[in-house]
Design a protein that fits this description.
CATH class of the largest domain in chain A: Alpha Beta
Oligomer: heterodimer
Number of helices of chain B: 15
Mean pLDDT of chain A: 75
Number of strands of chain A: 6
Structural class of chain B: alpha/beta
Number of strands of chain B: 9
Radius of gyration of chain B: 25 Å
Radius of gyration of chain A: 27 Å
Strand order of the largest sheet of chain A: 3-2-1-4-5-6
Strand content of chain B: 5-15%
CATH class of the largest domain in chain B: Alpha Beta
Distance between the termini of chain B: 52 Å
Largest interface: A-B, 56 and 56 residues
Mean pLDDT of chain B: 84
Number of helices of chain A: 14
CATH architecture of the largest domain in chain A: 3-Layer(aba) Sandwich
Number of domains of chain A: 3
Strand content of chain A: 5-15%
Chain lengths: ~375, ~325
């Protein structure tokens, strides 16, 4: 085994744990390892960490794998703290760089593509939110950051497109008279950019568990990009969750919200009516004519009052009301689904049964 | 390193020979040499008024050896900006700083054509050969260089600090890529300007948004966290002159425990330095609950946090923060 073989194994292990390692990172890492003194664990650690991890969120995972990987071998090789020390001694530099380097590159290249779409043939983005098996959730989890970034980039682009620097002709010419008709100073029209004001409401009951996890994660990433955003979550009571969300594992988000916000009322079953009414009573002042309201939920109301007048009232006072429903359109209105009742007061209702559809819906806004 | 086809592209200096040596020699000669280098970085940083641990010193050393930028992340006030400043002091070279903000563009960061001068030049040369004039107005004289361009054309090597990179737009990030990997800037009218000396680049980020993969890939990553108790003590002794060792120890201890409390904003190193010097000004040589209550506003900057800490102090009457 060469050092770089060892490193390659380490990369693979990291990738399996979900730490993205690109080929160029792998190359940098090999180079860095050659630069430092491997005898000292902390140098070795920093060399690996600074080249492989580019986000603090991965530190814990990295540490775990680092400990597991490099101590696991150490137990076989009596006393050696880090394996590369031992194996390196047997290697000539030639072998290290050629055999190992190629190996590191070759396999990581082949894996690089796979990492984008874990799960092989079926695109996880296209999978139904209602398939709640844990494996599916994990697949979605892996691609979620990509989606969030794509959406954010799209929104930013949209914003910039509306903002061309037009020349304020009158002002430029008027000022040019002072310099004998030469337009020394050019003035542009300052366009006041309307900043989006967003208010989100997310049903986080058990029936829409997977969907709500990703909706929360999405809201968290929206919070990062837009300053004016208020978020609420509800089951049969509603509470503000602005600033409560963090980016990271979508699955933890929901538990975090359940723990830290008062979203469960007396019954514990989803109740859109009570939640909407409570919103109207307590948080109405968050709305303004600039607000776009985004509601995430399946509108399954357990045969309770739907209180759709709240939405009607809301629609009058805000800019837009969008509803994102994780159920396929075919089952809308079936059973206790009240989506058609609410739809009357929404600007638009989107069917978001898969991640792709959710992405598409959001990017249409 | 190795190219994809397997041909060697030259492993960086010095390390190749080391691998030919047997184990004992690695530890005694080659190994020690690198160890010394890293330790000397650490020592020199201390001389430049910055205390760093081995991990940080290793990253600094690697950045220099591999000629790569460092992306520094971490909570506010742990010395992200200070590390670049100290590094420039250590090297004795100028620090060129680009403070990022929302809406910064290439005209502010890279270069801008001096439109007014160009215009005046055209006016003055109204009867001359137009081709010649056109050539003239797109030359160095009419170019206003901004921090990023300055950092690569300066006659001596420089430290380039790109502060709060997370504040910029996505497009601007893309603008940096050429500079960070090739150390060159392409100006359409002039051509490509290569760095005379490769600058030492530090990018700092508060992680208020995720940076693009492309940018991260080009950098070494350094996460600065709150320091250990010992390190904080050393920092205090270095930064607050005349501080007694005993008081530094106490301050560091209180800081350590206080950061264990869940707060909106944890007190940073710069705040603990402020606190220590405020204690000096008040002529205190010991820390007790009353002193802390008196000086709490140097440490805690959030109304809710303030209330929380005060409550803890009143109810417990000690500095344990449990």
């Amino acid at each position: 085994m060469t050092v770089l073989h060892n490193l390659q194994g380490f990369f693979e292990e990291l990738r399996q744990e979900g730490v993205p390692i690109t080929p160029s990172q792998a190359m940098d890492c090999c180079q860095a390892v050659l630069q430092v003194d491997w005898v000292r664990e902390d140098y070795f650690y920093s060399a690996l960490f600074s080249t492989l991890v580019k986000d603090y969120a991965y530190q814990e995972m990295f540490d775990q794998v680092f400990c597991r990987y490099f101590n696991f071998d150490a137990s076989n090789q009596a006393g050696a703290k880090i394996i590369p020390i031992k194996s390196r001694q047997r290697e000539s530099s030639e072998q290290i760089s050629i055999s190992g380097g190629q190996m590191a590159l070759g396999t990581s290249l082949s894996r690089g593509g796979a990492a984008q779409s874990p799960g092989g043939s079926k695109n996880p983005l296209d999978q139904d939110f209602r398939l709640d098996s844990l494996a599916d959730i994990h697949k979605l989890e892996a691609v979620f950051p990509i989606i969030a970034r794509r959406l954010a980039a799209k929104m930013v682009k949209k914003r910039n497109r509306n903002n061309p620097a037009l020349i304020d002709f009158r002002r430029t010419i008027r000022n040019s008279i002072a310099s004998g008709g030469v337009p020394i100073d050019i003035f542009t029209v300052k366009k006041t950019r309307e900043k989006p004001v967003i208010l989100t409401m997310c049903d986080i009951s058990g029936s829409v568990m997977t969907f709500s996890c990703f909706a929360l994660a999405l809201i968290a990433s929206l919070e990062r990009f837009f300053r004016k955003i208020d978020s609420f979550a509800f089951i049969d009571d509603i509470d503000e969750i602005t600033g409560l969300l963090f980016t990271g594992n979508p699955l933890d988000l929901r538990t975090h919200v359940l723990k830290n916000a008062r979203v469960v009322g007396p019954s514990g079953y989803t109740d859109y009516g009570v939640s909407l009414k409570a919103f109207h009573q307590r948080y109405r002042h968050h709305l303004s004519h600039k607000t776009s309201v985004l509601i995430f939920g399946d509108a399954r109301n357990n045969w309770l009052n739907d209180e759709s007048w709240v939405l009607q009232e809301m629609k009058k006072n805000v800019k837009k009301v969008y509803w994102f429903n994780p159920e396929p359109e075919s089952s809308w209105g079936m059973g206790d689904s009240r989506i058609y009742e609410y739809q009357k007061y929404c600007t638009q209702v989107f069917e978001c049964s898969t991640m792709l559809k959710l992405e598409k819906a959001i990017s249409q806004l | 390193m190795v190219k994809r086809d397997g041909s060697r592209v030259g492993v960086s200096q010095g390390t190749v020979s080391v691998t030919h040596l047997d184990s004992n020699q690695i530890n005694s000669s080659g190994g020690m040499k690198m160890h010394d280098k890293i330790q000397s970085v650490k020592g020199n940083m201390i001389k430049a008024d910055y205390i760093c641990n081995d991990k940080t010193a290793t990253v600094l050393y690697l950045a220099e050896a591999m000629q790569k930028p460092i992306l520094v992340e971490g909570p506010a006030g742990v010395g992200k900006t200070a590390i670049a400043q100290a590094f420039s002091r250590m090297k004795g070279i100028p620090l060129i700083r680009l403070q990022c903000y929302e809406g910064i563009d290439e005209a502010k960061a890279l270069y801008e054509w001096n439109y007014k001068r160009q215009l005046l030049h055209i006016q003055a040369a109204i009867n001359q050969d137009t081709n010649k004039v056109e050539e003239e107005i797109f030359s160095d004289t009419f170019l206003l260089s901004r921090p990023l361009l300055n950092s690569i054309v300066s006659d001596s090597p420089a430290v380039l600090l790109i502060d709060e990179i997370d504040k910029v737009d996505f497009e601007f990030e893309a603008l940096l890529l050429e500079l960070l990997s090739e150390f060159q800037i392409t100006i359409p009218e002039l051509g490509t300007i290569k760095a005379k000396h490769i600058p030492y680049v530090f990018l700092t980020s508060n992680a208020s948004r995720e940076l693009s993969e492309a940018l991260k890939r080009r950098c070494l990553y350094l996460y600065l966290d709150f320091p250990s108790r010992d390190m904080e003590e050393q920092i205090l002794l270095l930064k607050v002159p005349d501080l007694s060792e005993q008081l530094a120890q106490k301050v560091a201890g209180v800081m350590r425990r206080m950061r264990g409390v869940e707060m909106k904003k944890l007190p940073s190193i710069s705040e603990s330095i402020d606190w220590a010097s405020s204690l000096m000004w008040l002529g205190k040589d010991d820390v007790d609950v009353d002193t802390l209550l008196q000086t709490l506003n140097t440490l805690v900057k959030h109304h809710e946090d303030l209330e929380k800490i005060e409550r803890l102090l009143y109810s417990r009457q000690d500095l344990e923060f449990r």
